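Progress report, Aim 2. The chain analyzed during this reporting quarter is listed below.
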Amino acid sequence: MSSNSAPAANNLEAFFMPFTANRQFKKNPRMLARAKGVHYWTPEGRQIIDGTAGLWCVNAGHGREEIKVAIAKQLDEMDYAPSFQMGHPKAFELAARHAALLPGDLNHAFYCNSGSEAVDSALKIALAYHRANGQGTRTRFVGRERGYHGVGFGGISVGGMVNNRKWFGAMLPGVDHLPHTHLPENAFSKGEPENGAHLADALEGIVGLHDASNIAAVIVEPCAGSTGFLPPPKGYLKRLREICDKHGILLIFDEVITGFGRLGSSFAAEKFGVVPDLMTVAKGISNATVPMGGVFVRKHVFDGLMNGPENAIDLFHGYTYSAHPLACAAASAVLDIYRDEELFARAADLAPYWEEGIHSLKGLPNVTDIRNLGMACGIDLAPEGPVGTRGYKAFSKAFELGLMVRQSGDAIAMSPPLIIEKAQIDEIVDITARTIKAVA
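Predicted structure tokens for the chain:
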């Protein structure tokens, strides 16, 4: 046995951590050892309230016995089955259940393993659809500034967060970006901001530059999440839908964060009354127990890919773990929880209390903006030196005080599990207030 093969439980060096300042973390690690309900616990037993539902994903709370039982049962029956030219019952059952939950004619589900894979899959489906329908010149995509669409090369190309792009050079060719919707006049908005619907009209300018015959799809998050949570201005998404319809451009909603109850409805598409042609999902689909993502597809897009010979493969795309049996079992159990506990309606009922609590932080030192919609919020802090300095201090201090938040630059974002109680919302608001004062 080589000298470096022995276990080293306390050695933090081997793990190359994602989206992390590795050297800084390993000097002062923040470790989580177990979780239940709306809490984590550190290895020392200190309780941390989960203000972010993990990474926007544990919508039904941690440690759900029903999901564990479903996964164990499936593992006992069958651990794995391929989805290439083969199938297993739970994949078809799950797709039918998702189709029944979705608005409009979003009635087909293509499964993958993450939000990043879902975005790249959606982009490829859009290209394949146009080519199959004799419009192969439609190869351009339109994303949005400050958008986050995962970390695949497709996702970072249509995404608009500079640090996710600048290090990697090569992007997909033929990508334009709409302006972001974070306007100063909307500061401290409660719910959907009043100003900014006109920003959707920038799409007309892009069409004027390239011609619609060259544009495949527009992709946006209904609420931009990773940039610090930006709800859409009133009427903005409907205007995007109108322009896309006018020019035959597909509209993709990235609902990796907003899907499965975060806004108090099944999906943002339902809440805003706008049905996209493609919808990407992940996170809440399986309550983060087994990695899973997906693309929900409207009937006309699916049918458009079914026009070749019956024995021909319809889409040359997929993953070894597409519709993995354990993920399907977990996702089906999660749907049972959402239904039986009426968690989407619960989120809608709690949202006004959450809004009141979060906006009570207005006026604290260095708070320059607060935004909220459903059970999520973003709080901007005035910079202190290099971008992100105060934001990181707030993130670290909140953890020290017993609260987990997300940091993006000098913004902090929160999105607690949908099972949270009002007393726990009060606790989050109190710790956030103490955090903001401590980093003033």
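The longest helix spans residues 115-132. The CA atoms of residues 144 and 177 lie 4 Å apart. These observations will guide the mutagenesis work planned for the next reporting period.
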